[in-house]
Recover the amino acids of this structure.
């Protein structure tokens, strides 16, 4: 994804560009994938609320036009990124614990 953003900055493309894969993933599938990678068991609860657009399928043609394609499927990307995210969360906890004041 970083390469896609870099290529966009170097290109003449203007306006919105989807930097993603053609892989369709629902919110439920995304949550299940992250939970699986994290080794967590979670219960998904759906709450009442306004119903918006049920799904969207964004075109990748503009990002493809500058030669970029996603290199990994979503789950592999999450699997590769998750350890870094865990480290960032732990570092922020350590920093918060070291602060002499209480954060509200």
């Amino acid at each position: 994804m970083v390469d896609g953003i870099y290529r966009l900055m170097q290109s003449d493309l203007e306006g919105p560009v989807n930097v993603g894969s053609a892989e369709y993933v629902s919110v439920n599938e995304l949550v299940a994938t992250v939970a699986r990678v994290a080794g967590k068991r979670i219960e998904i609860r759906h709450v009442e609320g306004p119903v918006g657009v049920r799904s969207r399928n964004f075109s990748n043609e503009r990002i493809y036009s500058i030669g970029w394609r996603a290199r990994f499927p979503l789950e592999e990307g999450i699997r590769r990124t998750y350890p870094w995210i865990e480290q960032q969360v732990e570092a922020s906890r350590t920093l918060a614990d070291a602060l002499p004041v209480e954060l509200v």
Notes: The mean pLDDT is 89. The chain has one domain: 2-98.
